[in-house]
From TrEMBL:
Enzyme's top EC category: hydrolase
Organism: Pedobacter caeni
Keyword terms, alphabetized: Glycosidase, Hydrolase, Signal
UniProt cross-references to Gene3D superfamilies, sorted A to Z: Glycosidases, Golgi alpha-mannosidase II
GO cellular component, one term: lysosome
Biological-process GO terms, alphabetical: fucose metabolic process; glycoside catabolic process
Any matching Pfam family: Alpha_L_fucos
UniProt protein name: alpha-L-fucosidase
Function field: Alpha-L-fucosidase is responsible for hydrolyzing the alpha-1,6-linked fucose joined to the reducing-end N-acetylglucosamine of the carbohydrate moieties of glycoproteins.
Matches recorded under SMART domains: Alpha_L_fucos
InterPro entries on file: FUC_metazoa-typ, GH, Glyco_hydro_29, Glyco_hydro_29_N, Glyco_hydro_b
Transmembrane segments: none
Length: 479
């Protein structure tokens, strides 16, 4: 069956005759798709459960673009540093020759992994190949790799080993779009384009199988550069390749950016069902409310400045602070997502001081408050202005991650029906307990003793289900 069938097809004809409630019965009928989503609802296996509990991750964008660091011959490029090759200010061939200067003498994968662990990251997404096509592993299928640079050594292996060692799961970033490959096309307009792209598809498949074979401990693949028409038209091929990869690595986690369905729909198929294991569309933005994630798994990837992923020596605009990034982490977890903070190491392989400082600030906070972030989920509590609720999965333990203390120093809580608060205390100091003051049925104030706070803090609520909540004293208004 082709095309979407809308049950209320004659709706527009009836619009003037029907009341609003009758118009709302318009229901989309499901259509049969050959290459749509393979599943409705969340994955429930151990690998995905673990992914769901990460809370905080690290993204690393590193490649040849780190050498110019956002500038060429003293001129600043206005876009994201990793896109500098697309700038007319540089001849493409000159950029492509940067592999002959790639010799990151300060690269130390173990130091990177230590920084990530100290920050509290539970997973890392690492760029094996960005849009420029340069491979940080010695791929057999192209000469444009680290093997043919002065550095020579396999960087992907060093990163995977170092992060494995620190107990941080690794996800490999892979850009399908490849500016360096002669057979890559943005669109397939001629027969020659199609012939070239067939070769490119084979190349892409070989590289992905190579990555999964060379680095068997990786937990997933993070795809990018999949928006061009050439790739969007490959629904059958990409579907088959996804199946092949999943067969090769059971438990492999793949987000919603890999493939389109046969109607060219990306992220969500023509029936509106998520493609892949989690929604990958939250780039530099966070859902405003729980309804926006439609019950799906998701993660948010975030830059420190506005839009710089690769190293840019001249960060400008607003630079996020440690507290802002902690807030984003809590906000994501409160809506069931993971927060992934990007790092763009320099051309020599070292991590810039600003990023080290942020990692330290986040890590210092996480050391005390991580219980409210790891293995936590949406709590089902009404959102309050002071911050975010998270809930330890599988328990009745609720965390209040407090960022804004009101002048009254009273934090409002509205519990879901039939919930009692048994105990409330500060996570950092369990001796500091609070007695919730009932202000209405199911609504309470927690009165803070100190009003001045320089850091976000966490209050734990030990709750339980009960026939009636604590809040029974207040009679509802009869209106
Ligand atoms: O174009 C890329 C960009 O350089 C960066 O890699 C981000 C990371 O999510 N992804 C693409 C834009 O969506």
């Amino acid at each position: 069956m082709k095309g979407l069938i809308i049950a209320a097809l004659g709706l527009s004809l009836l619009t003037n005759l029907q009341p609003a409630s009758a118009q709302q019965v318009a229901v989309k009928e499901q259509i049969t798709l050959l290459h749509g989503s393979h599943r409705v609802g969340k994955r429930s296996d151990a690998a995905m459960e673990k992914w769901r509990g990460y809370g905080l991750g690290q993204f690393i964008h590193w490649g040849l673009y780190a050498i110019p660091g956002g500038a060429w011959n003293g001129k600043q490029y206005n876009g994201a540093a990793e896109w500098i090759r697309s700038w007319n200010g540089i001849p493409k061939s000159t950029y492509d020759s940067l592999n002959y200067s790639f010799n990151p003498t300060a690269f130390d994968a173990k130091a990177w992994a230590k920084t990530a662990r100290q920050m509290g990251a539970k997973y890392v997404t690492f760029t094996t190949k960005h849009h420029d096509g340069f491979c940080l592993w010695p791929s057999k299928y192209t000469k444009y790799t680290v093997k043919n640079s002065p550095y020579k050594k396999d960087i992907v292996k060093a990163v995977v080993d170092a992060y494995d060692q620190e107990g941080i799961d690794v996800i490999l970033y892979f850009s399908v779009m490849d500016w360096n490959h002669p057979d890559w096309r943005y669109d397939l307009k001629t027969k020659e384009d199609s012939i070239a792209f067939e070769r490119f598809k084979k190349f892409t498949r070989n590289q992905l199988i190579e990555l999964l074979t060379n680095y068997p401990t990786v937990k997933g693949l993070w795809f990018d550069g999949t928006w061009d028409k050439s790739w969007v038209k490959q629904a059958a091929f990409a579907d088959e390749l996804e199946t092949e990869m999943r067969k090769l690595r059971p438990g492999l986690i793949i987000g919603s950016r890999f493939r389109a369905d046969e109607n060219g729909k990306r992220h969500f198929d023509s029936n509106g069902v998520l493609m892949g294991d989690y929604e990958q569309g939250w780039e530099r933005k966070i859902p405003a409310k729980i309804e926006d994630v439609h019950g799906n798994d998701w993660d948010c990837v975030m830059t420190v400045p506005e839009n710089q992923w690769g190293y840019n020596a001249a960060w400008n605009g607003h630079i996020k602070t440690g507290n802002e990034l902690i807030e984003m982490t809590a906000r994501c977890v409160s809506m069931g997502g993971n927060f992934v903070l990007n790092f763009g190491p320099k051309g020599d392989g070292s991590i810039r001081q600003e990023e080290i400082k942020l990692a330290t600030e986040i890590g210092d906070w996480m050391k005390i408050n991580q219980e409210a972030i790891y293995n936590c989920e949406y709590a089902g509590y009404e959102k309050q202005d002071w911050g975010y609720f998270t809930k330890k999965s599988g328990t009745d333990k609720i965390y209040m991650v407090v960022f804004n203390v009101p002048v009254s120093a009273a934090l409002r809580i509205k519990t879901p029906p039939k919930t009692i608060i048994k105990k409330a205390y500060l996570l950092a100091d369990t001796q500091e307990v609070f007695s919730p003051e009932e202000i209405s049925g199911d609504e309470y104030f927690l009165h803070l003793k100190k009003r001045e706070q320089s850091k976000p803090f966490v209050i734990v609520l030990e709750t339980a289900k009960a026939e009636k909540g604590n809040g029974t004293k207040y009679e509802k208004a009869k209106i």
